[in-house]
Amino acid sequence: MQGSCPHNPEATMSYSPLLPMPGANTVEEQRARWERKRCRTAKELLETEHRYLEQLYLVVTFFVTILKAKGTLKPAVMETIFGTLESIYSASQVLSFHLERGNLGLGLENFCQKLELYGYYAENFEQANKTLMEQLRKNKSFRRFKKLQETRPQFQGRKLEDLLPLPLQRLQQYKHFLRDLLENTSPSNAEYQKLAKAAKSVSEVSQWVQDIVRTRENLLELHRVQKLLKGQKTQVVAPGRWYIREGWLLVVPSKGEELKRRLFFLFSDIFISAKPCHPLHLVNSDKFACTAVYPLHQCVVNKVFGHTQGDGGLLSLSFPYKTLLLMSTDQQDINDWYQSLTTAVRKLKA
Fold first, then answer.
1. 300-305 and 270-276 as β-strands: parallel, antiparallel, unpaired?
2. For a Cys-Cys bond, which of 30, 237, 324, 333 suits 328, CB 3.0-4.6 Å?
3. Full strand arrangement of the beta sheet holding 243-251
4. DSSP letter (8 states) at residue 82
5. For the chain, how far is it from start to end, CA to CA, in angstroms?
């Protein structure tokens, strides 16, 4: 990581013939700076790990342990709500033990063997929230127990819902700490390889968790659009389909008719056109009627005008049996649509 820290001008500002020439000690100075930063990061990692452990302790001690003893919740329900939290807590206790003794590399190496617990926790997280809400609605004794535990002074006003997402937030913090530690550790340092391996492991699990979150958010978008469209004729929710964007565009008819304003939905494999249902309709007044579904793998996108700065632009979407001319009075809007459509078509054809 040579040159990752800025050069310190004060170190070579003045000199006498008896002192080394400017720059002679820069390698040593750089190493000293790296070491200072490394120590600061290691100290911050330990301090934040202690705070994280204190918060996990609240859930494990005042919820998991007591609930198991009391039998307020069935074992399967307990497993769903708290997932791998107890194991995550144990892994952090071991990590904290090593960090306190300065065994940074060894501590992180051992910890990385437990990292998949965070991935499983993320996979279960949505179901955990659903089950928790369900139990709070149905189970009076659990509702009373939860309220009582949260009034303990140790909780400082925090609710169980505030504490359950902590492992997922902590994973992102680990990623940043390890990156900083690696940047400020010399490759010749005995711990460098262990740190590099740990940073890679954390990054991979972090990506796993981000993919879970993205997939979940995408599914919510697909269901939202499905609910917007009246009837079930148009199937929006489909395996492997990704929501990209939506917005209003003007359809230019082939003959001299009026422009038609339509709401378009762009997905990874299809392009949907819809129009508002009648505002006085008893059931569907707030919904949209699908007017067409275009398969993107057969699409060719061209910008007809809108290349230069002006008022809006026109796109041409060519399909085997139809050409669609879409217009917007907003130049930026038409450019964004062009970019989104061409990217989606390119990815699909690749």
1. unpaired
2. 333
3. 288-295, 270-276, 260-267, 243-251, 322-328, 313-319, 300-305
4. H
5. 36
- Region of 319 on the Ramachandran plot (φ > 0 left; ψ -120 to 50 alpha; else beta): beta
Query: Residue 22 — pLDDT band, cuts 50, 70, 90?
Result: low
- DSSP letter (8 states) at residue 62: I
- How far, in Å, CA of 85 to CA of 251, rounded? 53
Q: What is the C-alpha separation between 37 and 177, in angstroms, rounded?
A: 11
pLDDT > 90 in the chain, percent: 75
Predicted local distance difference test score (pLDDT) of residue 278: 85
Tokens linked to 54: 């204190």
* Sign of the CA dihedral with 349 first, then 267, 300, and 322 last: positive
pLDDT of residue 5: 36
Q: Residue 252: what are its φ and ψ, rounded to 5°?
A: -90, 115
Residue with tokens 């609605």: 137
Q: With a cut of 80, say whether residue 125 has pLDDT above it.
A: yes
28: Cβ–Cβ under 8 A, 6 or more apart, which residues?
none
Residue 310 has pLDDT above 90, yes or no: no
pLDDT at 337 over 70: yes
What's the DSSP call for residue 229?
Answer: B
Beta bridge partners of 186: none
Helix axes 116-138, 140-150, angle to 10 degrees: 120
Q: What is the mean pLDDT of the chain?
A: 89
* Rg from Cα positions in the chain: 29
Calpha distance 227→2 (Å, rounded): 55
Q: What is the mean pLDDT of residues 110-137?
A: 96
The encoded tokens of residue 159 equal 């609710």
33 confidence band (pLDDT: 50, 70, 90):
confident
What is the CB neighbour count within 10 angstroms for residue 129? Answer: 15
- Which of 33, 39, 24, 28 minimizes the C-alpha distance to 4? 33
Number of helices followed by number of strands (H, E) in the chain? 11, 7
- With cut-offs at 50, 70 and 90, classify the pLDDT of residue 164: very high
Rounded to 5 degrees, what angle do the CA atoms 331, 334, 337 make? 150
* 336 CB burial (10 A radius; 0-12, 13-18, 19+): middle
